[in-house]
């Protein structure tokens, strides 16, 4: 059991942010996020399964925090977990995320937040695929996808 916790901490990064912290008042967050983004990211909400953005998106790109634009996950680490939420097996870097114990809803889980702005992203579970064995189950509403540019010569080509 301690081995699982050590593996999780090694991949989640604890409370070691790698970039300058973004700190705003609740009013400032409300002014730059939609009501649903604010509810999920700033009030620790959860979108309903199979309803949020990106749960079934297969495009190549980089997933960022919707609140502060910090890069969080690469599409290459995304997998279909069958849960209805975007799921990843690893963050872009160990210190992109912060983990916190979550004892709400009568459960004991590990909450995942953006290390830069402390926005709630989702939870991490020890039932993911190799190579990490972790499943970062994220709210798509707390993410935004920046698509990779098409390789030169592919733009505008029809199949």
UniProtKB/TrEMBL annotation:
GO terms for cellular component: cytoplasm. SUPFAM superfamilies: Mss4-like (SSF51316). Pfam families: SelR. Residues 1-21 are annotated as: Disordered. Keywords: Metal-binding, Oxidoreductase, Zinc. Zn(2+) binds at residues 65, 68, 114, 117. It catalyses: L-methionyl-[protein] + [thioredoxin]-disulfide + H2O = L-methionyl-(R)-S-oxide-[protein] + [thioredoxin]-dithiol. One of its GO terms (molecular function) is peptide-methionine (R)-S-oxide reductase activity. The active site is at residue 137. It comes from the Bacteria. It is an enzyme of class 1 (oxidoreductase). Belongs to the MsrB Met sulfoxide reductase family. This is Peptide methionine sulfoxide reductase MsrB. It comes from Aquabacter spiritensis.
């Amino acid at each position: 059991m301690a081995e699982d916790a050590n593996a999780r901490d090694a991949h989640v990064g604890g409370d070691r942010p790698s970039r300058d912290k973004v700190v705003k008042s609740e009013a400032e967050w409300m002014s730059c996020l939609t009501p649903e983004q604010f509810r999920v990211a700033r009030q620790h909400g959860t979108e309903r399964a199979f309803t949020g953005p990106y749960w079934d998106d297969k495009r190549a790109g980089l997933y960022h925090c919707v609140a502060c634009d910090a890069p969080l996950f690469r599409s290459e680490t995304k997998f279909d977990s069958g849960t209805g939420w975007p799921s990843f097996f690893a963050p872009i870097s160990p210190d992109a995320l912060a983990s916190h114990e979550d004892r709400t809803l009568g459960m004991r889980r590990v909450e995942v937040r953006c290390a830069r702005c402390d926005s709630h992203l989702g939870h991490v579970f020890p039932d993911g695929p190799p190579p990490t064995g972790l499943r970062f189950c994220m709210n798509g509403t707390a993410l935004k996808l920046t698509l990779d540019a098409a390789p030169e010569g592919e733009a505008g080509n029809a199949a």
